[in-house]
Amino acid sequence: MPLLSAAQSTLVIVDFQARLMPAIHDGARILANARRLADAAGMLSVPILMTEQNPAGLGNTVAELSGAGPVIAKMSFDACAESAFLDALAGDGDLVLCGCETHVCLGQSALSLLEHKRRVVVVQDAVGSRLPESKDVALRRMECHGAEIVTTEMVLFEWLRSATHPRFREVLKLVKQDGL
Q1: SS3 172
Q2: Could you read off the pLDDT of 27-38 as tens digits, one per residue?
Q3: Which of 159, 155, 33 is nearest to 99 (CA)?
Q4: What pLDDT, in 10s, does the model give residues 83-134?
Q5: Contact, 93 vs 10, CB < 8 A?
Q6: What total of structural domains would you count in the chain?
Q7: Which residues contact 124 (CB under 8 A, 6 or more apart)?
């Protein structure tokens, strides 16, 4: 099924870490969109899984996302190299990815998840890299290998499906916040 379903999705938040974010191009906007995704996921009972790359070196998850979901610490750029990550994503649901860096940890994780025959949906306005061209090339590469590239707003409205959804007005407030 092409449309995302809240009941069949997991939000994967990759490496939004304190020491990394100041170096990310357009980091504040990307982080705001990740927060919107996490807030909507909470409202719509979408599970969230987070990763931290070398937390001793890059710090923990930024305060804006801290506590949004369980965290898998990793040293490998590819989160799939951590058995706890794959165990936490057991099943065949859709994986909605946001995070940093698009061309390193997020990209390697997405490509590996595709090799594991998972549906990977990358939220282009909620992923970042230090350099815009690194992000652009990574998005094209992931798309060539089968990842779907979407926006935050697309995810939110597909999770809702209808203006009659009981949480519609709450999610709509997230859409109307500055920066989306």
Answers
A1: helix
A2: 999 999 999 999
A3: 33
A4: 999 999 988 999 999 999 999 999 999 999 999 999 999 999 999 999 999 9
A5: yes
A6: 1
A7: 139, 149, 150, 151
Confidence check: pLDDT of 50 > 70 = yes
CATH, residue 72: 3.40.50.850
In which order are the strands placed within the sheet that holds 94-100? 71-74, 48-53, 9-14, 94-100, 120-128, 148-150
Cβ atoms of 127 and 30 closer than 8 Å: yes
Question: Would you say 105 and 77 are in contact if contact means Cβ atoms under 8 Å apart?
Answer: yes
Q: Would residue 130 count as lying in a domain?
A: yes
Range of the domain at 165: 6-176
Return the structure tokens found at 90: 């057991």
CA distance 95 to 69: 15
The total number of residues written for the chain in this structure: 180
Proportion of the chain above pLDDT 70, given as a percent: 98
pTM to 2 decimals? 0.96
